[in-house]
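Hey,

Quick one before I head out. I ran the complex with zinc ion overnight. Inputs first:
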Amino acid sequence: MGSNVRHRHPTTDAYAHAYRRDPTSPTLDSTIAALRRPGGGLSLAAEAGRFTLHYQPGTLADGDTDYLVTLTERALTHVNKTLGASPTWHFDLYIAGTPFAYPGETSRGYTLAYGRQVFHRYDATGPLVELESGLAHELTHLTALNEFRPASSAMFSEGLAVYVQWPILEAAGWLQLDQVCAAMHSTGALPTALYLTSDAAGYNGYLDQDNYMASGCFVTFLVSRWGMEKVTQLYHSAAWEAVTGLTLAELDRLWIEETAAQASEIVVEAKALVDLLEEIGNAYAYQAAHLKEIEGQPASWALDGLRVTWRMGRFDKARAYTDEFYALTANP
Ligand SMILES: [Zn+2]
């Protein structure tokens, strides 16, 4: 079954509108509500070793279960290898067939790590490589909390997840993480690690995209200098000096110097990259603020298109999706 799935997910510009979605499909809220009912749970489930895949009839997942299991196992292998972890505990993966219900519509995936539950949308609004990368992001949250204890800051939690997920996109020829941060630095948009680890830094779901990307770069820097094992010690302790011999301010300076030194290697259009990254956050914020008026899914498909084409480094397409998003959300 899995082998004939790929052609159903075109990676061309048309992917965001390739399929008709069923607006009556269950949303994440109904998924959680179903779980909480006595004797509840979703109507369909597939056992896959370490995890149970839950889905609902009539959604894209129904019929693609073999492929979803394969994709999840691949993402898991990547996460465990990158983190140097070998967990054996069981978890539940819930696949929603549509954008999540209000107020979660801005998320594609999220994780209730203590409950060992991962939720992800699967509605053909992105190439499969992005789904695999999104699963790796959520599975990193799940694994890190259960194996390394809670993160000391959102910087570490999100930074580690971005660090783990991004190579999957890079392998597909999408934007490289170091290019993103070099471009952000060259335009003055790169936040410092001191800021990222402070209470002042907002992460707000996906609203503050620059913080997510910068955190991923700072974690990349830490891993490249001190290795994953020390980074997993820092993850929950933030004992910068004890683990690395340097203060956070000193680490920050080193990281910024290293990023600045990459200026001559920037091959992307730095200003377009940074402007559109901000547009993604703005569009998510706009959607969250106007969700009830926006109604329907086309606007979230345009937003998916914006995020995906930005990650591909196709900035003209991303600009077109930005326009489409606001055209679809404008009040008549
Ligand atoms: Zn996250």
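The longest strand covers residues 91-96.

Talk tomorrow,
K.
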